[in-house]
Design brief:
With 469 residues, the chain is an alpha+beta fold. It is built from 17 helices and 17 strands. Helix 7 crosses helix 8, helix 15 runs antiparallel to helix 16 and helix 16 crosses helix 17.
């Protein structure tokens, strides 16, 4: 058996009772005197960082590598018996003998309270978050302090059980809030409801990977597995990346559950418009739109692809072979690349797969998208070349070769330039910066607000060449 501890903080709920005072005491200081009134204090040494995950919003996510919960149990320190496993759902997964052998880790010393623990047994892993509370109400707290733990038991497999760690922490924080609200964990009137709560969490998390449970009139529990949780920060969202949905929106009720900002942004995501275009269309600050898209990407609602530019070159990859043999992806592609009207509704007949595949195969090095459209004329097959490229970029059977401008060093125009910003811009046109990068840095000064405008400006200037890479 091995035991590990994590010092990461938990996600706290927002529901509290006005008669309960929360105080943050050092973990080792259990002898501190509580307030004069019978209120509850947490025994911990740091504040928590709220990061609440609410219910399912968009489509379904396939949790293929996550093991189901084998059991959930609630443990506490009994003043007569010591650490005991009070409730377990389903019973028995962890036997009394197993619990006795690890009870000192389940209800640990004060120094390890409010820290994530993981206990690895022969056939399972136990993930818990022990916590302690101080209260002057002697009928419920005979020793003026009590210790609790809510633990998730998962199979000992190669699956990604890390996703349960924030869920366990958040569940423990809800239990703390419930105890502070109405002595939910210590008063027998409420305590008898805990098995039903654990059963609902166990069944709903295994079935839907989320659970919403009304514990009291004040506190509702929201738990959700976050599929992107890998301890990795989501990528930075720049103004010229394009969000594209990876999960289908079934109806407007999903959008209505979201915050007001997301409700305005989501209908504008079409797989073509970049973040800056969405910001202009919704009249919302670009930084706020970027943060919203970043959040949607974290929860795997959207993917991010580079902006479509007619000056870029796109070439097919070896993934195109897998696309040819994937029937579901073929049908999805036919519907996505079909030309649409101003209301984003499909028009004309559905394209044929043979035309789509042939067009993908015709994309090659040395031919810009502008030249390719002139050569192939995809509109005659009722295909939108922008959607065709973005679909291929998302599923990685296309890759982009960006345009990198190179300024002639001997240009007579360059010698006469007095504008310092323009001098810096021309020196940056050395083949190492793409049009997208240059627009981000110099777009406002040059009055070019997208890479295509900058490309046109440089072509008309007459002393720039372009490298695709």
């Amino acid at each position: 058996m091995s035991v590990s501890s994590d010092t990461s903080t938990a996600c706290s709920s927002t529901a509290t009772c006005s008669s309960v005072v929360t105080a943050h005491s050092p973990a080792i200081n259990l002898s501190d005197e509580g307030p004069s009134s019978p209120s509850i204090q947490r025994i911990e040494d740091r504040a928590s960082d709220p990061n609440e995950c609410t219910g399912r919003l968009l489509g379904d996510y396939q949790y293929t590598d996550i093991p189901n919960i084998a059991s959930i149990f609630f443990a506490e320190f009994d003043e007569h018996k010591g650490p005991v496993m009070k409730f377990q759902v389903p019973y028995p997964v962890i036997s009394e003998e197993q619990f006795s052998s690890i009870s000192n880790a389940i209800i640990p010393k004060p120094e390890i309270l409010c820290r994530l623990i993981k206990i690895i047994l022969e056939d399972c892993k136990i993930i818990g978050y022990p916590f302690g509370l101080i209260c002057q109400k002697k009928d419920l707290y005979p020793r003026l302090k009590r210790y609790f733990n809510v633990c998730f038991v998962v199979p000992k497999t190669d699956g990604d059980d890390q996703m349960y760690e924030p869920l366990v922490q958040k569940c423990a924080e809800y239990f703390i809030e419930l105890e502070q609200e109405c002595y939910y964990l210590s008063d027998e009137k409420y305590k008898q409801k805990i098995p039903h709560m654990l059963k609902c969490i166990y069944e709903e998390i295994n079935r839907k990977k989320e659970c919403i449970y009304q514990a009291t009139d004040i506190t509702k529990i929201y738990l959700k597995l976050c599929p992107s949780y890998r301890g990795i920060e989501p990528p930075k969202v720049t103004p010229y990346v394009v969000p594209i949905f990876t999960r289908e929106i079934e109806d407007n009720s999903f959008i209505q559950k979201m915050d007001v900002l997301s409700q305005k942004i989501i209908p504008k995501i079409n797989g073509i418009s970049c973040v800056k275009d969405i910001a202009n269309e919704t009249e919302i600050d670009t930084d706020l739109v970027s943060r919203c898209i970043r959040n949607l990407h974290f929860y795997e609602c959207v993917g991010l692809v580079p902006i479509f530019l007619y000056s870029n070159t796109y070439v097919a990859t070896e993934e195109l072979h897998n696309f040819y043999h994937n029937k579901e992806l073929k049908q999805e592609c036919l519907e996505f690349v079909q030309r649409r009207n101003s209301k984003n509704q499909p028009t004309g007949e559905l394209p044929t797969f043979s035309d789509i595949f042939r067009l993908y195969m015709s994309m090659r090095c040395g031919v810009s998208m502008h030249d390719w459209v002139t050569e192939q004329n995809p509109s005659q097959f009722n295909i939108d070349e922008r959607r065709l490229v973005q679909f291929g970029m998302h599923y990685k059977f296309l890759r982009k070769l960006s345009s990198h401008p190179v300024a002639y060093t001997a240009s007579p125009d360059q010698k006469d330039i007095n504008n310092r910003v323009l001098q810096k811009f021309i020196s940056s046109c050395d083949g190492t910066h793409s049009l997208e990068d240059l627009v981000l840095e110099f777009g406002a000064a040059l009055r070019c607000y997208n890479p295509d405008q900058l490309h046109t400006l440089l072509v008309n200037a007459g002393y720039f060449e372009f490298i695709s890479k």
